[in-house]
Write a structure and sequence with these properties.
Low-confidence stretches: 1-5, 161-168
Strand order of the largest sheet: 3-2-1-4-5-7-6
Mean pLDDT: 90
Structural class: alpha/beta
Shape: globular
Radius of gyration: 19 Å
Largest sheet: 7 strands, mixed
């Protein structure tokens, strides 16, 4: 994982700015994947722990969190007080996971940072026979370019390694259903399902700026460029949209089982 290291710059803002995942998603982990008290779980790339906290509250114990960024690992240790959480401050490639040991493995808006073939093979080996794998993402913004994206497109065009909204023609990783299912099948998983939830969130300018400050292309900017980007974003939000915007949120969940 590489870009994932950016999120350790300000884990508190990330935690406060990013919305949690839908309750319906966690319900599916319970009803389909057997999430219940005492289940042995590993989580790849927990970041500041948005999903980690919910998994623990639903009984995951022990929960082994694999987090490569030392700043995020420290944040997790300082903000989550429970003996049920074990933190490995290491990349998933380097993590020493016992084979055929876990009931459930999860990755919340993190698995796209990994090489899919080798990572899924390791996930598969780590699960018990009949164990479950779940990976999910929150995706902000509509699938088609909207008025706000058009108004801010020129800002994203300046960010390194981040094509502007209008020039980005690839299917977003989480929405590339065929590729994701092919990867799961190639790794040996069975009975894969995809579920999608749509909602919307209303942001004032300050909260919108906080949210965008957590995006990896913005985190990758030099400090002066990042401040300029966020200042321009705030100006557009205030002057063109009255300081209040409704942003679509789409959550995609993949679940599958080891045979």
């Amino acid at each position: 994982m590489t870009g994932d290291r950016l999120f350790g710059n300000d884990p508190k803002t990330y935690t406060e700015a990013r919305p949690d995942y839908p309750d319906a998603l966690y319900e599916r982990l319970i009803t389909r994947c057997g999430l219940h008290p005492g289940i042995f779980v590993f989580e790849i790339g927990p970041g500041p722990g948005l999903a980690t906290r919910r998994l623990l509250s639903l009984g995951a114990s022990p929960l082994r969190a694999i987090e490569p960024d030392p700043r995020l690992a420290i944040f997790l240790r300082e903000t989550i007080e429970t003996d049920s959480l074990e933190i490995d401050q290491v990349s998933f490639d380097e993590a020493m996971l016992p084979e055929a040991a876990f009931d459930l493995g999860v990755a919340a808006t993190s698995f796209h940072w990994l090489e899919q073939g080798s990572a899924l093979a390791k996930v598969y080996r780590s699960l018990k026979a009949g164990g479950w794998w779940a990976m999910w993402w929150n995706n902000f913004g509509p699938e088609e370019l909207d008025e706000f994206q058009q108004a801010t497109d020129h800002l994203f065009a300046r960010t390194a390694d981040s094509p502007s909204w209008s020039r980005e023609k690839r299917i977003p990783f989480a929405f590339d259903r065929d590729s994701r299912l092919q990867d799961l099948t190639a790794a040996g998983f069975q009975d894969a399902e995809v579920e999608i939830w749509s909602s919307s969130l209303t942001y004032d300018t300050a909260h919108l700026v906080a949210l965008y400050s957590t995006y990896s292309p913005i985190q990758a900017l030099e400090p002066d460029s990042r401040r300029e980007f966020l200042s321009s974003l705030a100006q557009i939000a205030d002057e063109q949209f009255g300081g209040r915007l409704e942003r679509p949120l789409i959550t995609v969940l993949y679940t599958t089982q080891r045979g």
